[in-house]
Structures are given as C-alpha cells and as structure tokens.
C-alpha cells in the first residue's frame, strides 16, 4: 500500500473482505427472487442464510438458479472472487492478468472445481479465452518457417500450450526446448517449438471479457482494492481486471465508481467522503444522486425505481441507497435481500462497505454468528488475513 497503513487499517480491510463473503452467503437462499412481497412471505424480517429452495419462487417472479446449494454457500459471484483472491495470493499481491485468466478458465471451465450456475459474462469469457488461444495458435502455425509435417506441428502445439498458459516472455524458451526434446532431438524442431510458444504468447489478449454491463464486473473488486488500496494505479489495475471478464467501457466506468467507494472506506474515510469521491466515475450520476436523496431506508422502493436486475445501471443506485441509509451491517444485508433480484451481486459492494464502516461484532458490525455460518469460513478468513497482511 502506498499510503501509510497501520494495524487498524489492515484490520478494517480484513473485516471488509469478510463482509463480502458473509453478505453473499446470507443472500443466496432468495437470490433472483424479484418479488419483494413474496420474499417477505417466505422469510419475514430475517431472510438471511436460507437454504435455496424452488418452492420459495412459487407465486412470485424469479429465477431459481442454486439447486443443490446449502445454507452458508456462496454464489458464483463469491466463487469468482475466490479465483481472483487465489491469483493475488499466488502472485504475491500483484495483479497478473495471465495467471488470473488461467485460474478463471481452470476453475469455471470443463473439469474445473465449480459446480453451480454459470452467468453470461463467465460463459462468454470462457468462450473468448478459448477463441483467443485458438487464434494465437493459428497465427503461430502460419508464421512457422521450419519444414515440419502436420503431425510435428500438432505435437509441438500440444507440447507448448501448457507452458504458454503458465509462463510468458523469456520464461518460455528453456522449458519448451526441454519438453520438445523428449520427442524431437533436432535443434530446428525445438526452435520451431520455441517460435510457436513465443508467438502464441504475444497473441494472447488480456481483454478476454464479455461485452457485458452486469454485476460480475464489480463483484470481484474487494480483494483487488484491498491490495491496491491508496495506490495511484488503482484505477488502472481495476480496468485491467474488469476487462478479463467484462470487456465493456460502461462496465469499467461502474467498476471505477465501486473501486473509488471501497478505496476510501478501506482507508477509514467517512461514508459521505467515499460516496462523493465515487459518484463522478459513474455513467449516470443523476440516478445515484436520487438514490442518496431519499429520507430513509427503503430498499424495496429503491428497487422499484432503479430496478433489481444484474445490470450495473440498476444495481449501483440501489447499493448507494442502502449504504447511505442503513445503520448497521445486519440492517443493510436484510434490506438488500428484501429488495430482491440480484441480491448476491449487490452484496459484494454492500457487505464490504458496511463491514469497513462498522467492523465485526457489536450492535452495528458483522454478527459473529453470521461469520460462523459461511461455508469453509476458516479457509476463507485465513486467505483474507494472508492477503491483507502480506501487503
């Protein structure tokens, strides 16, 4: 961190990151139920940590996406945030786009660990990553000057791909030669393989995301902001990370808005200062101003006005409204769930922001019992502490 961080700063950021996981898990049971009245009928005033059930959606408009999930599990938003966290940990607190793309593809793609709903930005990003790699392979094959048979070209591509997915630039040549030497001892074939690897490497694009303006663009930001908090390149790395999954200018603008908000809160500044700093980055400041102007907390009403879908232009005003009027973490998360729609996506800004403001425990912070209800909480909290304390 470029600002003068203290143990109190790091504690605040750890609390904030934990708040994202808690908020997501708390919201999962009624995620994408758009009918606020039905949510009240199902869950009353304590809608958090319900096990997802299809019958909750009967008699109300919504989409049941989380069959098989249990109370305490997180949504695909949380899973994607975990991927970025793992990449930041592995890269010693630096955003490594190639590493992030590889982990994203490995986790959500065929044979990966994720079992659950795949949203459109994730699906399109996986398709784009495959297409980008295939185009790079074709470019490499077409520029190879060595006299190779089709079989040799196929074998070389098979041998170099594992390395182009992990390594880049000058890291490639030596391991690629060694891998090829297991089959072909001829120097000219090995050099052709190095050419293939280096050409593929040059043509792998960092902007692999979908042309999409939905919440996955901002939901993964908390760990990134935690690492780059207070640093002058925060906006630069925010855009780079967002374009991995959401290659869209409007999505980037909303992400800058969310990152500004979290950055100021993570540094211990007031909510009013954070909201004021974040608002100019937005694509529609009028809607944000209206969300802030209401006299009291009415997340359901905010959803009626702004919308409840995954679209950032609908979600961010609701987020601003909840943050500016909720008096505690619990009140904010319950209001977010009662609003309906994409509550899990909004939770990844609402939760970290409220936890940065109010911490853990007490009347206004994250309830200790809620922390304990998150699936795999010990591992998640250990990663959070490692990530933040490493900086």
List keywords for this structure.
391 residues, mainly alpha, ADP-ribosylglycohydrolase fold, 2 domains, 20 helices, 63% helix, elongated
Binned, the helix content reads 55-70%
User: How many domains?
Assistant: 2
End-to-end gap: 6 Å
Summarize the biggest pleated sheet. none
H and E order:
HHHHHHHHHHHHHHHHHHHH
Name the CATH class of the largest domain: Mainly Alpha
Number of helices: 20
Binding site for Mg(2+): 342
GO molecular function, one term: metal ion binding
Cofactor: Mg(2+)
Pfam families: ADP_ribosyl_GH
Structural notes for this entry:
The chain has 391 residues and is mainly alpha-helical. It has 2 domains: 7-93 and 216-390, Orthogonal Bundle (ADP-ribosylglycohydrolase fold); 122-202. Helices cover 63% and strands 0% of the residues. It has helices at 7-27, 36-43, 76-90, 97-108, 120-142, 150-164, 173-181, 187-202, 216-219, 221-228, 234-245, 249-266, 271-278, 285-293, 299-306, 312-325, 329-339, 343-358, 368-373, 377-390. α1 packs antiparallel against α18 (343-358), α4 packs across α5 (120-142) and α15 (299-306) crosses α17. The mean pLDDT is 96.
């Amino acid at each position: 961190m470029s600002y003068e961080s203290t143990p109190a700063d790091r504690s605040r950021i750890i609390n904030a990151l934990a708040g994202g996981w808690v908020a997501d898990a708390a919201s999962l049971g009624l995620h994408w139920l758009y009918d606020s009245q039905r949510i009240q009928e199902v869950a009353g005033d304590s809608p958090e940590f319900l096990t997802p059930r299809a019958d909750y959606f009967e008699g109300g408009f919504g989409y049941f996406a989380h069959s098989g999930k249990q109370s305490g599990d997180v949504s695909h938003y949380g899973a994607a945030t975990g991927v970025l966290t793992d990449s930041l940990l592995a890269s010693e607190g630096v955003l490594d786009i190639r590493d992030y793309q590889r982990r994203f593809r490995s986790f959500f793609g065929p044979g990966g660990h994720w079992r659950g709903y795949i949203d459109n930005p994730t699906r399109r990003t996986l398709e784009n990553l495959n297409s980008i790699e295939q185009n790079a392979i074709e470019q490499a094959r077409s520029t190879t000057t060595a006299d190779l048979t089709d079989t040799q070209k196929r074998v070389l591509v098979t041998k170099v791909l594992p390395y182009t997915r992990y390594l880049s630039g000058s890291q490639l040549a030596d391991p690629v030669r060694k891998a090829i030497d297991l089959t072909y001892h001829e120097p000219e074939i090995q050099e052709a393989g190095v050419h293939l690897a280096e050409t593929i490497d040059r043509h792998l694009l960092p902007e692999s995301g979908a042309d999409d303006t939905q919440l996955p663009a901002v939901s993964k930001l908390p760990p990134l902001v935690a690492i780059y908090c207070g640093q002058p390149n925060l906006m630069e790395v925010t855009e780079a990370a967002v374009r991995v999954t959401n290659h869209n200018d409007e999505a980037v603008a909303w992400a800058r808005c969310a990152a500004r908000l979290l950055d100021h809160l993570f540094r211990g500044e007031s909510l009013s200062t954070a909201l004021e700093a974040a608002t100019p980055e937005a694509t529609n400041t009028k809607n944000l101003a209206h969300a802030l102007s209401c006299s009291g907390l009415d997340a359901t009403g905010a959803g009626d006005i702004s919308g409840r879908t995954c679209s950032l232009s609908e979600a961010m005003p609701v987020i601003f409204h909840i943050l500016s009027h909720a008096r505690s973490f619990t009140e904010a998360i319950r209001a977010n769930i009662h609003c309906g729609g994409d509550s899990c996506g909004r939770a990844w800004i609402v939760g970290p922001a409220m936890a940065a403001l109010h911490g853990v425990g007490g009347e206004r912070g994250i309830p200790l019992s809620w922390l304990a209800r998150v699936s795999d909480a010990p591992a998640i909290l250990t990663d959070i502490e490692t990530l933040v304390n490493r900086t």
